[in-house]
Design brief:
The protein is α+β, with helices and mostly antiparallel strands. Helix content is about 30%, strand content about 15%. It contains 14 helices and 23 strands. The strands form eight sheets. The chain has a six-stranded mixed sheet, sandwiched between helices. A three-stranded antiparallel sheet has the order 13-16-17. Strands 14-15-18 form a three-stranded antiparallel sheet, covered by helices on one side. A hairpin with a 2-residue loop joins strand 16 and strand 17. Helix 9 crosses helix 10 and helix 11 runs antiparallel to helix 12. The longest helix has 22 residues. It is globular.
Length: about 475
Amino acid sequence: MYPPYRPYASVSAGDLQFGQPLHETHPHLLKPGELTPGLSALEYAQRRSRLAAKLPPGAVAVIAAADLKYRSGAVFYEFHQDSNFFYLTGKTCPLARLGRHLLRETPGFNEPDALAVIGTSATVNDHVFHLYVREKDAKAEQWDGFRSGTQAAMDVFNADETGDITEVASHLEPLVTNASQIYTDFPSDHRSKSFFSRFISDKSIKSNGLAKILEESHTCPLKDLMNQVRNIKSPAEIANMRLAGQASGRAFTEAMRQSWTKEKDLAAFLDYQFRRNGCDGSAYVPVVAGGKNAGIIHYTQNDHLLVPDELVLVDAGGEYGGYITDITRTWPVSGRFSPAQKDLYSAVLSTQRYCISLCRASSDISLDGLHGLAESHLRDQLSQLGFDMSGKALERLFPHHLGHYIGLDVHDTPGQSRKASLREGQCVTIEPGLYIPDTEEYPHHFRGLGVRIEDSVCVQAENPLVLTTEAVKEIEDIEALRS
């Protein structure tokens, strides 16, 4: 099962072109020893070891790269690598122009059509890392950009075994057939044009793909094990998230300093500033909601005018080295709060401050526990402002959860419970909000107002680390920006 010893770096990276940046080809993006920004090849190897330690003896974990998605015809959407695949391999994004869409220059292996297999020994406490990728092809690379190829899979990404992805069936079948257990999470949709997508998901009678092979095997979901491995962030991951938060926060503060008349102009400015400040781009489609639009939690039309006497709620954030930040700020379009706007904003801000202060391991509290405290605090604040808070009144005014986990994904480690106490190294959002419908049952001055304030926070032993502190949020600071 274990390959013979081989020397590393049998091919100099400086002599080749790869499907992603390396220090040798992009020293302006990566430092010596980094596989992706801030993260070394050793850290990726340690991640694979941690996952292997959770597998039973003789088991394998099979992780597929993401597939290209098509907008129409031959026009691609921007490619985004599967988060679990990226987490274990460091392979995230090519530099090529594909179709009519320029793929973002994000370091990492963002090539589609790749498969990682981590297999454990039945008798030895060790594992083997298999990485199957597209082989280098001069003709294809002229059209679609450089590929890393099988040699780089071993020399750069430290695979123990590799092979051409078009021949993966012959490599993979003995691995999964002989495995004591198979852990995987494959997509069920095989409508993609690519051979690889059909290979991993097609269960039809005529298919000889992986999905058909696995149908008769003992398979288990991989998601829960990956959540356990990804849940606690390393110092390098936290540093990347801090860089993303710092760059994004500065963009927010610069946006508040200026006057805006259109939601779309503000959205475009933030995306530009994220990139200008060092991010790879926006982490998600932003919410730029003026006035009553703030009452729509996931408002992304961003095509209305901004009115001077109204508030604008902006939920946006940048991405750096694959890691995201998540920020929401609400501020007056005119630069100055009205008395009612100030009162509602203060209710949300005081709640957020209180909840952030408890984002430490010593608090022994969960995200669900924090949510309950936020509800209680908001209910008291609204009662003091003249709201009738009887019954389920708060559910309509604060309809979403206080926070979620963040990391490689905006909603990181999907399916992970929010009932467990927060642990040192977890990263979360804290985002209380109030959205007042424009109806007669609510005090007149507050009707139609929407306020949400959100920061990305890293849980530490005794004190929270706010990753997005550069985005101002105190009333005096916001108003001073345009005084």
